[in-house]
Amino acid sequence: MKSTVSDHPAKPDLNSKEGDSRERLIASTRELLWSRGYIGTSPSAIQARSGVGQGSMYHHFKGKPELALAAIERNVEELMHVAESRFASQGTAIERISAYLHAPRDAMRGCQAGRLVQDPDVIASPELRKPLTDLFEFVRVQLAHILSTGIESGEFDQNLDPIATADMIASVIQGGYVLARVSRDTAPFNRAIAATIDMLKKRAELGQLQRTATF
């Protein structure tokens, strides 16, 4: 079953009176970066998709790197908002992490941020890389904090390493995207998410045993 994604940047409405040329350029670049990557996104492709001419494009942005940065920052802003809202949900640590893992995603298209990390030109640019670094650091820190809270409350066993587990969860999501894309099937992604939640539940069972043993 194919997943959907709530932060999918729709193709801009070229007839919209509200959409100015700058926003259409950013929206078009976001879509092209997701589908083609940074190297495969040319200024001419951005102009064709947005309906914005070369003169107007270079009026708003000095060049492709500056426009790409604006698009990446917009992606990161939205992805952080989605993650933050899921992490802030009510419930146990497992329930909050599960809410994040089950956020709508288009596994077949891959991660908007993760796909760019594989682009050598993006990684070579400190400016383009920074918002992506900030996003993944934010996710890992939030996951580690929730896991630490679960350990302190006795929900998880005391031997659980919150930082290593947070890294594992973040890696599962990105690896799930890769498996879904290469197999052209969302099943590997969904199985990876389910296995991660199952692992957390087993650590919660160990936590329950530890609490019982102290009584």
Automatic annotation (TrEMBL):
<feature type="domain" description="HTH tetR-type">
    <location>
        <begin position="19"/>
        <end position="79"/>
    </location>
</feature>
<protein>
    <submittedName>
        <fullName>TetR/AcrR family transcriptional regulator</fullName>
    </submittedName>
</protein>
<keyword id="KW-0238">DNA-binding</keyword>
<dbReference type="Pfam" id="PF16925">
    <property type="entry name" value="TetR_C_13"/>
</dbReference>
<dbReference type="InterPro" id="IPR001647">
    <property type="entry name" value="HTH_TetR"/>
</dbReference>
<dbReference type="InterPro" id="IPR009057">
    <property type="entry name" value="Homeodomain-like_sf"/>
</dbReference>
<feature type="region of interest" description="Disordered">
    <location>
        <begin position="1"/>
        <end position="22"/>
    </location>
</feature>
<keyword id="KW-0805">Transcription regulation</keyword>
<keyword id="KW-0804">Transcription</keyword>
<dbReference type="InterPro" id="IPR036271">
    <property type="entry name" value="Tet_transcr_reg_TetR-rel_C_sf"/>
</dbReference>
<dbReference type="Pfam" id="PF00440">
    <property type="entry name" value="TetR_N"/>
</dbReference>
<feature type="DNA-binding region" description="H-T-H motif">
    <location>
        <begin position="42"/>
        <end position="61"/>
    </location>
</feature>
<dbReference type="GO" id="GO:0003677">
    <property type="term" value="F:DNA binding"/>
</dbReference>
<dbReference type="InterPro" id="IPR011075">
    <property type="entry name" value="TetR_C"/>
</dbReference>
<feature type="compositionally biased region" description="Basic and acidic residues">
    <location>
        <begin position="8"/>
        <end position="22"/>
    </location>
</feature>
